[in-house]
Structures are given as C-alpha cells and as structure tokens.
From TrEMBL:
Gene3D superfamilies xrefs: Nucleoside Triphosphate Pyrophosphohydrolase (3.90.79.10)
Protein name: Oxidized purine nucleoside triphosphate hydrolase
Class of enzymatic activity (EC top level): hydrolase
Family: Belongs to the Nudix hydrolase family.
Cofactor requirement: Mg(2+)
Enzyme Commission no: 3.6.1.56
GO biological process, one term: DNA protection
Top-level division of the source organism's lineage: Bacteria
Biological classification of the source: Bacteria, Pseudomonadati, Verrucomicrobiota, Verrucomicrobiia, Verrucomicrobiales
UniProt entry keywords in alphabetical sequence: Hydrolase, Magnesium, Metal-binding
PROSITE patterns: NUDIX (PS51462), NUDIX_BOX (PS00893)
Ranges of residues in domain Nudix hydrolase: 14-139
Species this protein is from: Haloferula luteola
Catalyzed reactions: N(6)-methyl-ATP + H2O = N(6)-methyl-AMP + diphosphate + H(+); 2-oxo-dATP + H2O = 2-oxo-dAMP + diphosphate + H(+); O(6)-methyl-dGTP + H2O = O(6)-methyl-dGMP + diphosphate + H(+); N(6)-methyl-dATP + H2O = N(6)-methyl-dAMP + diphosphate + H(+)
Function field: Oxidized purine nucleoside triphosphate hydrolase which is a prominent sanitizer of the oxidized nucleotide pool. Catalyzes the hydrolysis of 2-oxo-dATP (2-hydroxy-dATP) into 2-oxo-dAMP. Also has a significant hydrolase activity toward 2-oxo-ATP, 8-oxo-dGTP and 8-oxo-dATP. Through the hydrolysis of oxidized purine nucleoside triphosphates, prevents their incorporation into DNA and the subsequent transversions A:T to C:G and G:C to T:A. Also catalyzes the hydrolysis of methylated purine nucleoside triphosphate preventing their integration into DNA.
Length: 167
C-alpha cells in the first residue's frame, strides 16, 4: 500500500455516480451475487449507476427493487466511496443502510439474494475495498472512503470515519 496519495483528491471528480444499499436485519446482512455488469460474479450490496435526473436515494431504491424485488424502507445514507479506476471511469458511490423492507428478496436476471450472518461476511468474494468500510456501516458510523484500483487490485486507500456525509 502506498504512503502518499497517488493523485490529488481535492480536484478529483467522477464521471460515474452509483449507489449501494445494505439491509441489516436480525444479525444478518442482505447481499447479492451480482450476475452482470461491473463486478459480475462478486458479492456486493444491491445498487447500480444513477440515471440522468435521478437522485442517489431514488437510484438506490430503484436498483434494489430491480435486483431483488423488494422496497427498502427508511434508508439512511452513511457513506461515500470514491473510486479511482485504471480500466473503468472513476466512480462516486453513495452507500445506504436500512433495517426494513417490504416484499421478499428473490433472484432476478441481475442478482441472487444472499442473507449472511454479519460475522460471516465473505470479504474474499467481494471488492477488496469492502473490508475497510463495511464494518463501519455495520456499526452505524459514517465514513468517506477513497480507493485507487489498478485493474481489480486495490493499490491505495484512505477511510475517514465520523464525517458529515452530504445527501
Ligand atoms: C471498485 O470497488 C467497488 N467496490 C464496491 N463495493 N462496489 C463497487 C465498486 N465499484 C463499483 N461498485 C458498485 C457500484 C454499483 O452498485 C455497481 C456498479 O453498477 P452497475 O455497473 O451494475 O450499474 P447498473 O446501472 O446496474 O448496470 P447497467 O449499466 O448494466 O444497467 O458496483
């Protein structure tokens, strides 16, 4: 892991904005096995890219409904992830947590739902940044994560907790 940031985050901006949604209930977290798109084959939360004219919250709700057929209730934004990528446009990702939803998670063309005990989160099957911020979301702490990837290898990271997160 490099010591100094390999880029100037003060002037960084992302061409792609996206979302992730994590539902936590009864000591378990609702994850997906992603069937297509960026990160296909990995375990992640439901989510996706923000459409033109859509707010981050609207996107997180829409993507969760499209991928799992559930409607999340009272989500809270807890974090932001800034990804500098080598072979994909950079991404700013808004991260939400919720405890309740309507409907029953079901497999779709995009995702397979997975309920996992929070002590058994399969980080080895997830993007390698996740282990550095998902524990904060589980503790209901806010966070700003900045990550530099070369391909799928995480080469630099910085995670700040307890920050004020914009909507
Ligand atoms: C680089 O590290 C990442 N880590 C994590 N945890 N999640 C990531 C990372 N990079 C992207 N993501 C998330 C953000 C989004 O939820 C998805 C990517 O969105 P996707 O490409 O699937 O967007 P859709 O709009 O659903 O796809 P289509 O364009 O195919 O409709 O991954």
């Amino acid at each position: 892991m490099m010591e100094a940031a390999p880029m100037d985050w003060a002037i960084w901006s992302a061409p792609v904005h996206a979302t992730l949604m994590f539902v936590i209930r009864d000591g378990q977290i609702l994850l997906i096995e992603k069937k297509r798109g960026l990160g296909a084959g990995k375990i992640n939360g439901p989510g996706g890219k923000i459409d033109p004219g859509e707010s981050p919250l609207e996107c997180a709700l829409r993507e969760t409904e499209e991928e799992l057929r559930i409607r999340v209730l009272e989500p809270r934004k807890l974090g932001e992830l800034h990804f500098s990528m080598s072979d994909f446009p950079d991404i700013l990702c808004h991260v939400y947590r919720a405890e309740d939803f309507t409907g029953t998670p079901e497999e779709t063309e995009e995702a397979v739902p997975l309920w996992v005990p929070i002590e058994e989160i399969p980080y080895e099957r997830m993007w390698s940044d996740d282990r550095f911020w998902l524990p904060l979301l589980l503790m209901e702490q806010t966070f700003l994560g900045r990550f530099v990837f070369q391909g799928e290898e995480l080469v630099w990271r910085e995670v700040t907790e307890g920050v004020t997160i914009p909507d």
